[in-house]
Design goal:
The structure holds 2 protein chains of 2 kinds. Chain A is mainly beta. Chain A contains no helices and 12 strands.
């Protein structure tokens, strides 16, 4: 049976040391002037627009970061939930366009994520410990609130240190086949809390 | 109400992943040849002086870290013991006195630190780099006089501080001498130390 193509962005699952991810996040800020929608599973980076910053400086202001093959971008973390105010009870499925919001972001650079590839490459046993790009494979889903970001298979994973994610392995999940649209375990490689961000952290290892 | 000017150095409060700091430290060594006084909250680096090293190599020997661009930091002092068995505790380490020093060495720890009031803080400060400055430790409280050099905030990966955000504390106003959440950016356990870890992001 082939893999499905229901994208969910990046989903934190564990730490590289093997311990489980316990759900800890940082509450970050998105200003009302920031137009794009945000979804659960979207990677975000530090927002450099003063107009979008939290005037109190109490919260880190973030924006969408999708490092695609034509545009490099660092990543600060991944959205795990969205609130309309500092009160966590006011929970949203997604962040609407041009609306102030607080987003809970997994910012720990040691966290491993699940992500589905976009089905445009040829997954193989050579992919683990190569670096790869991300891609907006589909728009975020307004019903589920889930991101449409995927691992870019068409731009072939390589050893390049500046690529934004490091593929660790195929996720050991039921019905997850090494085929198009497989789910992979990845680390964020251009994390803004590691090695200057865009310089990248891990140098991939080619098999041959 | 204006912020106070009571410096306390760096105070470990949590980890970047959101979990609480549990007080774990490494017991380090300062030899009697070292002539500088050390205080709680002070940043330290690995000592390069062989005469100050622990004779049995069981403890990392440390000394005060510098505060400017490219200064490596191994951790932050949280307390002092002058005996290995902790039977006697020092308020601070006087000059030319050997001591065991408990140091928070985890590079994932987030600290509170007060800025020195040399520049008016604003919403552009979070995720910028900066230097430290030292107003001198207190022999009465035992606390370090290290603060963030406010006028040094910029985008410079080799600066020793990464400013995360204002600390969400009562009476902590976004004004001079505010208390900030920071990470050590030139940690000796990360990326070679002096090169620095995180590159700041300027807002405009």
């Amino acid at each position: 049976m082939g893999n499905t193509a229901n994208y969910f962005g990046l989903r934190p699952v564990k730490h590289i040391n093997g311990s489980s991810w316990n759900g800890l996040t940082e509450k970050c800020y998105v200003g009302a002037t920031y137009a794009p929608l945000l979804y659960i599973g979207d990677p975000v980076m530090i927002n450099n627009a003063l107009a979008d910053s939290d005037a109190t400086a109490l919260h880190t202001s973030v924006e969408l970061s999708i490092p695609i093959a034509t545009t490099a971008a660092p990543i600060y973390g991944v959205i795990t939930s969205i609130c309309s105010s500092e009160d966590i009870a006011d929970k949203w499925v997604k962040k609407p366009a041009s609306t102030e919001a607080y987003v809970n972001v997994c910012v720990d650079p040691t966290v491993i994520y699940h992500i589905r590839d976009d089905g445009l490459g040829a997954p193989a046993a050579t992919w683990p410990f190569l670096n790869a790009w991300l891609i907006q494979a589909a728009a975020g889903n307004a019903l589920t609130g889930l991101s449409g970001v995927a691992l870019d298979g068409a731009n072939v994973p390589a050893t390049t240190q500046t690529f934004p994610v490091t593929i660790i392995r195929l996720a050991n999940l039921p019905d997850n086949e090494m085929d198009d649209n497989a789910i992979w375990e990845v680390l964020i490689n251009t994390h803004q809390l590691l090695n200057g961000g865009v310089a990248g952290n891990v140098l991939g290892v080619a098999k041959g | 109400m204006a912020n106070e000017i009571s410096y306390f150095g760096l105070r470990p409060v949590r980890h970047i992943n959101g979990s609480a700091w549990n007080g774990a430290t490494e017991k380090c060594w300062v030899g009697s040849d070292y002539t500088v006084a050390l205080y709680v909250g002070q940043t330290v680096m690995i000592s390069t002086d062989a005469s100050e090293s622990h004779a049995f190599a069981r403890f990392t020997s440390i000394e005060a870290a510098a505060h400017t661009d490219g200064s490596p930091i191994y951790g932050v002092i949280t307390s002092f013991d002058n005996m290995q068995d902790k039977s006697t505790s020092l308020l601070y380490k006087p000059a030319s006195t050997d001591a065991f020093v408990n140091v928070c060495v985890d590079p994932t720890v987030v600290y509170h630190c007060r800025d020195d009031g040399s520049s008016v803080p604003d919403a552009t400060w979070p995720f910028l780099n900066a230097d430290f400055v030292d107003a001198g430790g207190s022999a009465i409280t035992g606390l370090s006089g290290i603060g963030i050099a406010g006028d040094s905030h910029n985008v410079d990966q080799s600066n020793p501080v990464l400013i995360l955000r204002m600390a969400d504390l009562p009476n902590n106003a976004l004004s001079i001498n505010a208390i900030w959440e920071v990470m050590i950016n030139t940690h000796q356990l990360l990326n070679g130390g002096v090169v620095g870890n995180a590159l700041g992001v300027a807002k405009a």
